[in-house]
Design brief:
Length: 201
């Protein structure tokens, strides 16, 4: 099945985001999306609120968290508990033990806490090479780095406001279930769509 996934969305459980679960659902419908990863900063509260919101049963919702580590932000997808450490290597080890997928978000955007080349040292599963809030230069650098070190790529809107949801989508072919989607993601997104804030698939 064709999955259209925004793999990096923040709800208003993140202190810097205004997106409510209801707004997320409305925008997903408007965008033509059928999957989303909730990646709030250091909490899974937003994911739980989304799962308690009527209407999301028609979509795949991946639990995730963007962890503020001592060396830069690190996204973990597919886990349902937060981490009690900010040590990046400890987070990575715990995430692997839990079966999580490790993503280096906005790795070369130095306006934010980014991992850069340390992504490879952590052994991340995916490099975010299309971040909706990064410029072309930062995204291109991430893409070239991923190719150089042989790490698959992924994209995400990094939405903090409702109009940003779905501005970057991954096209994935897999079965209609989270485990199948996570397994497919580990191989990387073959197609990443940059739609901007007004597009629809």
């Amino acid at each position: 099945m064709r999955i259209l996934l925004d793999a990096h969305v923040h709800t208003n459980s993140s202190p810097d985001s205004s997106i409510t679960p209801k707004q997320l659902l409305e925008r997903m419908k408007l965008r033509g999306m059928n999957a989303v990863a909730i990646t709030d900063h250091d909490t899974l509260e937003g994911y739980r609120r989304v799962m308690d919101t009527r209407g999301f049963s028609e979509y795949i919702v991946i639990p995730g968290i963007e962890v503020s580590t001592t060396i830069g932000d690190l996204i973990v997808l597919g886990i349902q508990e937060a981490f009690n450490t900010t040590d990046a290597f400890e987070v990575a080890q715990m995430a692997r033990e839990l079966g999580g997928v490790l993503v280096a978000p906005h790795p070369f955007d130095w306006r934010r806490a980014s991992l850069g080349e340390r992504s490879a040292l952590l052994g991340v599963d995916l490099i975010e090479c299309a971040n909706g809030k990064c410029g072309n230069k930062e995204n291109q650098q991430a893409k070239e780095f991923a190719k150089a070190v042989g790490i698959p790529v992924i994209g995400g809107s990094d939405a903090h406001e409702k109009q940003q949801i779905g501005s970057v989508l991954n096209v994935i072919d897999c079965d209609w279930e989270i485990d199948s989607l996570l397994a497919a993601l580990r191989r990387g997104a073959k197609t990443i769509l940059r739609l901007g804030e007004g597009g629809r698939v």
